[in-house]
Amino acid sequence: MNKNHVCFAELPAHSDIKERYTALKKILQYLKLGKIIKQKDKVAVKTHVGDVNNTTHISPELIKLVVSKIKEFKAHPFLIETSTLYSGPRSNAIGHINLAYEHGFTYEKVGAPFIMADGLLGNAEIEVKIPGILYKSVNIARDAVLTDVLVVLSHPTGHIVTGFGACIKNLGMGLCSKKGKLQQHSSIKPSIKKKTCTFCKQCIIWCPVQAIIEKDGKAFIIEEKCIGCGECLSICKFNAVKFNWGVQSEDLQKRMAEYALGAYQNKIGKSFFINVLTDMTKECDCMNITQKPIIPDIGILASFDPVAIDQATLDLTRERNGKDIGRISYEKLNPNIQLEHAEKIGLGSRKYKLIKI
Ligand code: SF4
Ligand code: SF4
Fold first, then answer.
1. What is the CATH number of the domain that holds 195?
2. What is the pLDDT of residue 89?
3. What are the Cα distances from residue 303, in Å, to 4, 128, 149, 179, 191?
4. Helix (H) or strand (E) holding 259
5. In ligand 2, which atom is closest to the CA atom of 221?
6. pLDDT tens by residue, 273-313
7. Domain count, the chain
8. Which domain, by its residues, includes 28?
9. Do residue 36 and residue 21 come from a single domain?
10. Ligand 2: which residues within 6 Å by Cβ?
11. Are residues 101 and 210 in the same domain?
């Protein structure tokens, strides 16, 4: 399989775990991973275990299949994650590992240990130099840089700020340190429309860093405290949170693509990517909510190119539904920005050949 090839195992609209397992098995056989994974390699498997109440993340049973495949090469697989910027169980190693276990990502179920790549508090990092347009170096989680091989399994969804999140987001946001996450989010500054705010207090309850207070009977965001996570935008039912969608989404998408390059650039030829197009939801798996899929299942994709696989994901969801998963979720946002920028800085190619297997 060439670098810009994307292989595709189709699934029925409402696939079950057996069908997903069979599709992934076919993909893993097709990839001929012996070219990438060598004996004794330390192989990091990056996925997303889902926040509290999330039930649509990639199943541990599929991760187990990947882990078993890696072990066929006598290599050493392990699952990696990083701490979130906002408070909550995934904001430090202990809480994140406990939640991973609750969601079934235990050694007994997946056959590999779960390691936090950025340490106990999310500050174990390596500054990686990149040929970016916005950044000349980025802060990547230490153990993501130190691993020999990187496997990224992503669950494509819509996203409140970037419009769409899949492989590029999993690499760029999912494998950086807290400092890196802060750097990516730093331009996002929502504010409250006083006239529209009913002071229902939902945003105050949900803001993960207590950046929203009451002022003159309305919600008010303390700019210096806000980390730009976007949760208040999604929780407000009254459209009272103002946000410069175009500029701030564009900015975050480009920053994320540059961070993805930082996580990937010492793994060229030593990494592969899998997107699982099932249970695709409006919001990402980071949200502390249970969601229903908004489009039918499509299948499983794999590629050695992180840009090609995301482009194929957008294209397939658009072909089947009239609009891609990003546009269906957030019509105002343009999810292509992250792909265009990623291609511009050399992360991969938007041109690809889809190979049905
Ligand atoms: S959720 Fe919306 S309406 Fe409710 S307090 Fe916050 S900004 Fe105001
Ligand atoms: S974006 Fe909203 S929810 Fe997130 S930290 Fe800022 S004020 Fe709080």
1. 3.30.70.20
2. 87
3. 7, 24, 14, 29, 40
4. helix 245-264
5. 7
6. 999 999 999 999 988 899 999 999 999 999 999 999 999 99
7. 2
8. 5-184+246-356
9. yes
10. 190, 207, 209, 211-212, 221, 226-232
11. no
